[in-house]
Amino acid sequence: MLGITPHSPRMGSAAAASAVWRIVEExxxxxxxxxxxxRDKVYAVFPGFEPSFRQGSRGLHLLFxxxxxxxxxxxxxxxxxxxxxxxxxxxxxxxxxNKDAGDAFNELRAFHGKESPRERDGGRQWNYLTLxxxxxxxxxxxxxxxxxxxxxxPHVELAGLELGDNKLTEDTLKDRSWLAxxxxxxxxxxxxxxxxxxxxxxxxxxxxxxxxxxxxxxxRQAFIASDSRxxxxxxxxxxxxxxxxxxLPDVTLNAxxxxxxxxxxxxxxxxxxxxxxxxESRFELSPDLTCIIGGSMTGKSTLLDGLRVHVEASLPQDDxxxxxxxxxxxxxxxxxxxxxxxxxxxxxxxESPRLRWPAVFHTQSELQRLAQEPExxxxxxxxxxxxxxxxxxxxxGRLNALDEELARAARxxxxLDEELAxxxxxxxxTRKAAEELDAFSDAGIDELHRASRDxxxxxxxxxxxxxxxxxxxxxxxxxxxxxxxxxxxHVADVLRDANLSEPKDDLQTRWERIRGLxxxxxxxxxxxxxxxxxxxxxxxxHERAVREQVDQKLAARGLxxxxxxxxQALNRQASLVPSYQANLEEVHSKCIxxxxxxxxLLADRQGLVNEQRQAFDRVxxxxxxxFGGRISVRRVDAGRRDxxxxxxxxxxxxxxxxxxxxxxxxxxxxxxxxxxxLTAGQLWKVDMSPAVEATFEExxxxxxxxxxxxxxxxxxYLIQLRMDDGSYRRLDDLSGGQRxxxxxxxxxxxxxxxxxxxxxxxxxxxxxxxxxTVLPALKRLKGRRQIVVATHNANIVxxxxxxxxxxxxxxxxxxxxxxxxxIEEPAVRDAIVQTVDGGxxxxxxxxxxxxx
Length: 852
What we know:
26 strands; Rossmann fold; single chain; 51% helix; six-stranded mixed sheet; alpha/beta; 852 residues
């Protein structure tokens, strides 16, 4: 932005001899050497001049800037009015006007009213403003007495004061509280300018401005709202010289997520446009503060709820409120499946809407309920301080991971407990089996087993001979009953021809021998059968005798002889003693290691908890400082007892449940306190009766104790507001408006670059808190975070310095954007007055009542 302010706008009286106007014309329609229009390189060019008025010892210098639309002739005439017809130069001497600044202001104001006609939207064709250059020199504004400065230079005439080249705001205001008070009252601001006498000096000193358009009115609004639309570009370096600030404004607007526009096309959406299947509505938003205004039922909440549903942002936790948001979003905004297009600069268009625009949404009811949602309160606090935020989030992730690891470790230890018990029992069984085997050996069990084995063997021989005798008898009967066929002459001739006459006699002989052998085998088998039966009988008698002796010896040692049948099983078990012993030792080692690991995890987690508490303590101190003690936060260690309550009620013991339910919140112990009381036998300290204590100890096995130790109840943070009498009151005890004020202030202070969308927070908003805390926070967020607010409150729109205002109107079934733009646009200003400020008549009435 370039303001050109020579002491004289032209050389002599020739209109063409004006370097200022030549620059304006080149900027308006010319191209640079690379073919790029100058308008694309320089955002705004304001023609102006710097006359010297008859005030102070050497005159008073002021800068006047004009819209280019003033035109060359009126520009020259305005300068002549300011100088009162005096020639600006006499030789090399700068001449002083024959008017003082007040006279010049009056004449220029009248000239502007006459020569700058109002346009259709109510605005002026061109505007001008005044700045005070090199204010601390003998030709500067502060050369006059301060009373005169405050009387003659209200903001309507003077927008800003130029700092010295090596001065900052604090330097200039030192020992000048009267100046600070006057500038605050008249909404004036400091700026740095180049005061260039050559091309190379342009930009030597500069100031950052945020303008809605390249017009004087936008520049005026920037000076009025200097805390959000202006930024001094310098800071004091270690060497005492001014250097560029490190936190330059993000002019690319790609470093943070924001929504530039929303287009809704077709469908049955409330914002489906004026008509036709492809009609559409388009909403243009600012990267900073956008205020959505409109009368009742014009679709403000429908628009915000629709965006919330469309990008799949988190919905309200309250069931009733969530259903309202979903219904408005789906039926109103997304009805009939319209095409919704989001323009998110710098974001990957192929990503989901949620990733491109990760907005955080709050309705007024949600803000009121936030106090009852400990997770949300902790999240707000965690994001408040830049230097703490990342570490808090990292520690929180590590704590959650440790919680899960401890829960797994507790379950693993419970499993090892079972394995250890099984291993001990198995080893005990095998040792007992070995002892029984020793007793059986002393009683002669080995002799008994040999006798039994001999009996079994000869019984098997007896059985085999019987089976062979039966089979041999069957074969013998078959052979005896068979006769060889007779060989007649025909067969004899065939056999003779085959040279087989001799085998005939041989076959007959063989067949007779077979019959004899079979009779002999049967006789031998009968004898063998009888012998084996006799042997088995004798051996059985010996076995019975040995068994009687063994039973007598076992009975004498208190053992049951009937278990002799289990000898082999006992023998196998006894052989496993070494392996069971090794398994027991292995499981025992695992238990020791797991317990040691469990204790280490507990210690690590407690260390992290302590670090997290210290970090939140620092955040709490920042809150106390930033809000001057008006907002206070108190930590309740392990105050969110839900995990412990779930653990205790899972026992389904009436006594334990009744004990817990009857305790007040402040009396309920943490898992650590409960374990300490149990270990020390002092559960009476947590108001547990002897009967409940006995039940509790019975329920709490070793595994359950570890499960209890693995629990972590998160800390709870209670927000308090200091009342007028100096006392503090908890958020739960405040009115709805006070709760909204406090929580909105904290939400706005969070160091979070995600867009923030708030639906009508002001219904019960405390105006003192609004002006003292909320509005300053809104302005501080500019350049850092996109804020979208639907509101009926003119203070939020005007005093919050909305960068974009969207005015909605609607019929019974269809809404549309009636006007949109910055506050400096006349149509938008009119919409603000009519919609949220009660209209012109209400505005005039307030002025009369307040005596403005």
